[in-house]
Amino acid sequence: MQTEQKPKLLGRRGRIAAAAAACLLTTALVAPALLPATSPAEAALPGVDFSALAQQVLPAVVNVSTTQKVAQAGFQMPNFPTGTPFDDFFKQFGNGQFGHGGKDREVTETALGSGFIIDPDGFIVTNNHVVGDATDIKVTLQDGTEMPAKLIGRDKKTDLALLKVEPKKPLPSVSFAAADEIKVGEAVMAVGNPFGLGGTVTAGIVSARGRDIHSGPFDDYIQTDAAINKGNSGGPLFDMNGHVIGINTAIFSPSGGSVGIGFAIPSTLAQPIVQEIRDKGSVSRGWLGVAIQPLTDDLAASMGLKNTDGALVANVTDDSPAKKAGIESGDVITGVSGQPVKEFRDVARLVAAVPPGTDTKIEVLRNGSPMTVSVDVGKMPNQETASADDNGSPSDTGSYGLALGPITPDVANELNISPDTRGAVIMQVEPGSPAADQGLRPGDVILRVGGRQVADASDAAKALNAAKGDKKPVLVQIERDGSQRFLALSSKAA
């Protein structure tokens, strides 16, 4: 999607950019999608003729243009003394000739993106960030026909939106294919509206499947080297049969241009969401009410697990379906509705697919033993050696690089936690220690050590010191800024 305004959503989508100074650009960032350059894949597909495919699908791909009203700060008058030569000049600002005398004003912004028709009656799929908070949406067909579009509904979590136009005759359309069947290395074709130029075709291959770019809980992107540029957002990624296998959404780029690493929302994720928006105008997702984290090798070893399959429950929300069903912090979720959980992000996807109100079987490991919990899945709301002496002053053991203190009323107030919280507050962390290596810092609260809740600082210190003899990391649960998480903490080498 293309816009004159600077990127607004860089914080939300830019987290993947950490390594090697590369940055993730989505059309949500620059309002249109992705950015410039030609794909190296186009030279890598000798002998493949995309002309018939392009002729078949181009009529169903549309340009999406939007306008919206945004507030713009007015010019603030400088505080010059009266009687200076600037008086007459700045009177023009005061009477509204320039900048409305310092008052905010409303301006109109325009943006461009892509979309595709999935029904001859005029239903069109695009990205949520393409439409944003638009007050006016217009769709332009390949033959130049322009029509106003209505927003039927959108889903921010997957960056999808559904539009509707009222055509005078049936429109050309395309259909979804099962993206699960697409293989890495297969040829694909992207169609969209890069830089507002109109229908443009680029070709490449499927570079990878199941990519997590840290844009949200349902990341499961198709990676492609077909050139995806600014304005391609919301456009389709086709297989060689002319079926939509993905919706082009983002690129990974060190320079801001297309370098052959683009990402598309897979059709298997998009199709049911689009259908639900079409049927209901919104999306309802199943909800457990747990905070989860990945199982690292160290965590798995400290819990006596054979591998890192599953998702570790870091916290259970009070009064949630999970809490009512008996799921506990420290459980490892290994299956949802009979589907295995290989990675922690599988839980969000599998639970979200369960209709709210459905009784669902959740498979967990508790203290290494398998068990099955029956949960009445709810509806997702709209939406982480030490010791202390008896008088509460910290003392250092050196084994873990920690010093712990009690949770006094003053400490609880300072950390914004309940004064009834049981555990120990970290008072000091030794630089270069195992605790520092795990990212622990003063103000963190230790809640559990070795799978059991600790009553106070002394109890936590005893549990940590006792774990030193096990010759493996000890599982520790901490709370920080209202979030709870587990980590595997080793003692210093003897």
TrEMBL record:
GO CC, any one term = periplasmic space
Matching entries from CDD domains are given as: cpPDZ1_DegP-like
Q: Where is the signal peptide?
A: 1-43
- Taxonomic superkingdom: Bacteria
GO BP term (any one): proteolysis
Report the SMART domains cross-referenced here.
PDZ (SM00228)
Return the broad EC class.
hydrolase
Major location category of this protein: periplasm
Keywords assigned by UniProt, alphabetized: Hydrolase, Periplasm, Protease, Repeat, Serine protease, Signal, Stress response
Which residues are involved in binding substrate? H129, D159, G231, N232, S233
Keyword Protease belongs to the record: yes
Localization (cell): Periplasm
Catalytic reaction list: Acts on substrates that are at least partially unfolded. The cleavage site P1 residue is normally between a pair of hydrophobic residues, such as Val-|-Val
Q: Which residues form the active site?
A: H129 (charge relay system), D159 (charge relay system), S233 (charge relay system)
Give the enzyme's EC designation.
3.4.21.107
Pfam families on file:
PDZ_2, Trypsin_2
Residues covered by the PDZ domain = 273-342, 395-482
The record's GO molecular-function terms, alphabetically, read: serine-type endopeptidase activity
SUPFAM superfamilies according to UniProt = PDZ domain-like, Trypsin-like serine proteases
Family to which this protein belongs? Belongs to the peptidase S1C family.
**Name of the protein this chain belongs to:** Probable periplasmic serine endoprotease DegP-like
Q: Which organism is this entry from?
A: Hartmannibacter diazotrophicus
